[in-house]
Amino acid sequence: MKGTSLGATVHYFTTRLLNGIQKQEKIKPYKVSSIQSVPSHIIRPSYVGSISNPAIVKDPEVHDDTGIHHMRNAGRLAASALEYARSLVKPGITTDEIDKAVHKMIIGAGAYPSPLGYKGFPKSICTSVNEVAFHGIPDLRPLEDGDIINIDVTIYLNGYHADTSKTFLCGNVNNNAMQLVEVTEDCLEKAISVCGPGVEFKELGKIFIDIAGKYGYSVDTSYAGHGIGKHFHSAPCINFCEDQAGCMMAGQTFALEPLLSLGSIEYELWDDNYTFVTADGSLSAQFEHTLLITKTGVEILTKLS
User: Fold this and answer.
1) Residues 6 or more apart from 71 whose CB is under 8 A from it?
2) Are the beta carbons of 150 and 166 closer than 8 angstroms?
3) From 29, 42, 158, 288, which residue has the greatest number of CB atoms within 10 Å?
4) What is the gyration radius of the CA atoms in the chain, in angstroms?
5) Per mean pLDDT, which range of 124-133, 162-171, 218-227, 256-265 is the poorest?
6) pTM
7) pLDDT digit string, tens, across residues 8-64
């Protein structure tokens, strides 16, 4: 995430053709409501209120039994919060309303919404609609029939973060958008299936690029995952490219988050200094799970049983 500069912005509608297919109205910046409060008794990550940006920790997150226990609890809560967010997605609701509802759920469980205050981010979840690739700020724009929306939830519970996201369909979504979402989720599932101790991270990129390439989708090889646990972001910085260095270790936790686009993976950054949109306005989709490498394979910490 980047630093922020908030203010009232103007939203306008345009209808355009993309790759010969009529697309939803173009997403533009919209008004953002005030920052929500968190009760004082809830433990905050160290970066909250800091004037300096948190650095990515250079060491991977490898946990003992106590750490794994806390990671499982954080993962379950993050998964429940994302499922709750999913239940709210419908035409007419604003991403601001979804953010407020999920915020209330998270703090009600005694956890802190990790994005809130991370490098000044003003909301508790990220909501990326249509061509917004990532770090979309929840705002007062109502979701429309045919939108796709990625909701990214990270929670901080008992000193540990867990991170998860999915791209959801809002109302009647066209076949091209639906296929993009399905293929992106399939990429994540196939990549997870090969995870285990000793597996090289570059194997994930081979799978991901192969699946996406069959559909002609663009692959973001620079933004695909990170270590997570006591720290929001730590090593390894996982890129879906064939020369990714490093191997997985038992006890290690990391978030895996592939991102696909129907068109370009060149991005433009809005004036809010957080929201990245595809430069050509093409739809993008993303899915994410926090994973634990076990002695025999992998455990998805952010998957509801």
Assistant:
1) 63, 160, 162, 229, 253, 290, 292, 301
2) yes
3) 288
4) 18
5) 218-227
6) 0.91
7) 222 222 333 343 344 567 899 999 999 999 999 999 999 999 888 888 899 999 999
Report the 10 Å Cβ neighbour count for 98: 25
* Strand 148-157, strand 225-227: pairing: unpaired
Q: Which residues lie across from 200 on neighbouring strands?
A: 247
Residue 28 CA to residue 123 CA, distance in Å, equals 18
Structure tokens at 213: 């390439």
Query: If we measure between CA atoms, which residue out of 209, 167, 216 comes closest to residue 191?
Result: 209
If one counts every other C-beta atom within 10 angstroms of the C-beta of residue 80, the result is: 17
Between 29 and 305, the higher pLDDT residue? 29
Residues 6+ apart with CB under 8 A from 60: 227, 234, 235, 236, 249, 252, 254
What pLDDT digit, counting tens, does each position of 74-130 carry?
999 999 999 999 999 999 999 999 999 999 999 999 999 999 999 999 999 999 999
What CA–CA distance (Å, rounded) separates 75 from 14?
39
Query: pLDDT exceeding 90 applies to what percent of the chain?
Result: 79
CA 195 from centre of chain: 20
Residue 250 burial (10 A CB sphere; 0-12, 13-18, 19+): middle
- Residue recorded with tokens 């060491």: 59
Backbone angles phi, psi at 102, to 5 degrees: -70, -40
Distance CA 47, CA 178 (A): 37
For residue 161, the cross-strand partners are 156
